[in-house]
Amino acid sequence: MRSMTSKGASVANQSCTNTNDGKTILTDADCSEVLGYAFSTWKKWRILIVIFCVQCSMNFNTSLYSNGLVGMSEEFGISLQTARTGAGVFLVTYAFGCELWAPWSEEFGRRWIMQISLLLVNLCCIPVALANNFPLIAIFRALGGLFSAGGSVTLGIVADMYTAETQQYAVAFVVFSSVGGSIFGPIVGGYVESHLNWRWCMWLQLIAGVVVQAMHYFLVDETRTTVLITNHAKDLRKADNTLNVYGPMEVKTWKETLAPKELVALWIRPFKMFFTEPIVAVLSLLSGFSDALIFMGFQSFGLVYKIWGFTPSQVGLTFIAIGLGYFLAYLSYIPAIKRNMNQRRQDPGNEFANYEGRMWWLMYTAPCLPIGLVMFAWTSNASLHWILPVIASGIIGIANYSVYMGTIDYLVASYGEFAASATGGNGFARDFLAGILTWAAIPFYEAFQEGTDQYLQWANTALAFISLLLVAATFWVYFKGPSLRARSSFAQRLADAESEKATIPPPNGRFEPLTV
Known about the structure:
Blueprint: H1 4-13, E1 17-18, E2 24-25, H2 41-64, H3 69-76, H4 80-83, H5 85-108, H6 110-130, H7 134-146, H8 151-161, H9 168-195, H10 199-219, H11 225-239, E3 245-246, H12 254-257, H13 260-276, H14 278-305, H15 312-317, H16 319-346, H17 351-354, H18 362-365, H19 368-378, H20 387-415, H21 419-447, H22 455-486, H23 489-501
Parallel strand pairs: 2-3
Antiparallel strand pairs: 1-2
């Protein structure tokens, strides 16, 4: 093995980027052995497992709150609808928080940004648990959502360790944690609601948050490419002070790093793409609506299973079916990913395999959303067994995971270096719609109640028809994708860049971080 000094000499002799003052700026091609792509398989999966736990904790935080609604309503003398404000506002601010944290993780690294985010979210749990009035709860729930980095950093970590061509399995795993974490709230919360004070919903969030923050601190290394290159340059200079090598983070001033114009441009781009790119808009709305249904379920499952006299803890257990749906969908994606990777390997120039082929399995699983909703609607009847709506919710779970995974994978492939912004629009839609529909869930069901005793059936049928339109739009993107991408300014800029790079060796696994 070469010494650090000999490595430095080798680097100094390479064609690195040079500045006017004679500094040699290292690039990822100069020190690929220290980047996240070079981590061992064991190390990558150690990091992924911890990130899985972090993502589950974040979603646990969003969903467990709902089981404290009755207790808060009784203690503070407020309506249940008012108490739901704490759930809705967390998700709405979470939608913005994910976008706001992303640029900071790209500038300063994933590890410490995630630590700061986790710390702030944990601190926000304390005043909520100790609150003596509801406005205090609403304020700190809003701040907790805003402080949550979420998928903007977790999927960014995946992109730091895997290239666009090899990251599908890792993305599928992290997506599983993102959707799966939300079901732990009602499962645990049902028992808390039945046997403990509502404040324990908040204390359990804090306990889970502290545990995962400790896991992250001790088990997750920095993965951001620019940070690793800069650290490597510092190590080289420390080993040989004659070297004049520097990392990319050392040549930018704080003024340049924190330039408001650059940060605002980064923050605005996801929203711009959401409103101007048909592919992003359609797939984000489908993904957002699918996820929002789960959070509507947190509010409405009690209405449905009250038909059979379920207790809060029994209602919570019904969410296990959604979790099983997520798990089955995750398993089903493993051979689907393998199929797509084989197609791309055998025919690298096949446009369908590289883009729309990534949505192939979604064409079979997305229809599970309206099917599951219709089944859930018309089996919510006391004359039928309660297992039928439970099975239906599992089918909805299959669709929700598949929609998230399929849309993320396609957007990453279609938008390349702009994937961070494209998937950011997807994540924003999921959290924002989930927050809005959390407020709207019970009034929505009550609106169907007048004049019929089948209001649950008709309300869920209405949701099924809405989802059917969105699923149809997904098929439209699948078949019309090439023409849509041809009219996309972002996708065309990517295609032009790819054609220019066709005659030169590609960069060493460099890929823009994702946000969800």
